[in-house]
Amino acid sequence: MSEKIDESWLFIVEWYDPLPQLKKTYLLKYYVDSHMVEMVDVRNKKLFLKKSPLTNDISSSEFFVGGKVLLYSRELDIVDYGDLKTRDKLQYQSKSISLLLTYNVYNDWGNIIHEIERNHTIVKYKSIILNNSQSSDISTQLKLNHYIQDVLVQNVSLYLSININTNANSNINDILSEYVSDIVISNNQTEYNLINELAKSSQPTALFDSSTCVIIKPHIVKSKQAGLIIDYIIKQGYEISCINSLFFDKIQSEEFLEVYKGVIPDFSDHVIQLSNGLSVALEVRAEDAVNTFRITAGPWDIGMAKELYPKSSIRGLYGIDNVKNSIHCTDLSQDAVMECQYCFSLMDT
Question: Are 217 and 327 in contact (CB under 8 A)?
Fold first, then answer.
């Protein structure tokens, strides 16, 4: 009986080495069935990482061109396919679209996100407000009506870049059909590029007042529950004034959490978790936002959260343990602006 061949995907990846301040290029082979990787240094043509197992925190859906994957404390940018076989297979299985959810469907943002993420991969979140010129440009090229054009200028919209799984049971158009009059969706590569460029050039919508910083952690994004948490926050009556998806490397994660060093147990594990993939940062506004939202978030201790507030706190509902506790939120009011600026100004650049 012949031995089963382990399917493999080949990618070109880049890693920025901070010590010599050089970008290094590798050929990464991902073994799909055994969930292992190996890497070859392209410049030296030498084995850099022998075939090694991946943790369960990393899924096959993270391997796509334009994405990032954290392997052994190194954040790798996946910049291209490594061979035609991988390109033909993965390009056939997925395509990309860009989407703008207008403020008219703000109350449904979380629900829409969850319905999308159940079968597809959201690779970028960013709240934006278009200026008159941008709104006119996109309206002309996508033939939008004046109603949508005005909404894009007057209010915050949520930009999403989505990798569509063409093998999924749910069609993206079926998910969005209920909201079609209040969203903008790309129908071809030209429209996709246009929406992406507008989103990139738009300034963050953070207000930096009466707010707290909330970060939906990588383990929640990977388990496809980010939409559920956003929906919970909106339904509690909070205003989400800014959204931005981020990849924290280990240095950035430690820098952001530095004020909590010596305060929270397992600090190093929290640093690793925050740098373990895509996070979604939110600026959440309310009266006395920091203290009010801490109650909504629930205790740091997940055992306590699940015992005392199992259905009335985010950590009680979605936390797994004291490190994978679903979200970070600002602990002290005096730190709120600093944390929001880190996520929506410093990291955005």
Answer: yes
> Would you give the distance in Å from CA 66 to the centre of its chain?
13
pLDDT per position as a tens digit, 100-154: 999 999 999 999 999 999 989 999 999 999 989 898 889 898 888 888 888 898 8
Which domains can be identified in the chain, with CATH numbers? 8-82 (no CATH), 94-201 (3.30.70.141), 211-346 (3.30.70.141)
Q: How far apart are CA 45 and CA 49, in angstroms?
A: 12
266 phi, psi to nearest 5 deg: 55, 40
CA distances from 349 to 104, 278, 326, 341, 343 (A): 28, 17, 26, 11, 10
Non-local (6+) Cβ contacts of 10 within 8 A are: 27, 28, 29, 30, 81, 82, 83, 85, 86
C-alpha distances in Å from residue 250, one per residue of 69, 71, 267, 268, 317: 13, 11, 12, 10, 27
State the pTM of this model.
0.87
Across the chain, which distance is largest between two alpha carbons, in Å?
68
Beta bridge partners of 37: 30, 52
What is the enclosing helix (H) or strand (E) of 163?
strand 157-165
Q: Which two tokens stand for residue 238?
A: 């909070």
Asked if 95 contacts 171 with a C-beta cutoff of 8 angstroms, the reply is: no
| Residue 222 contacts residue 228 (beta carbons within 8 Å) | no
C-alpha–C-alpha distance, residues 117 and 62, integer Å? 13
The span from the CA of 156 to the CA of 126, in Å, is 10
The CA distance from 232 to 109, in Å, is 11
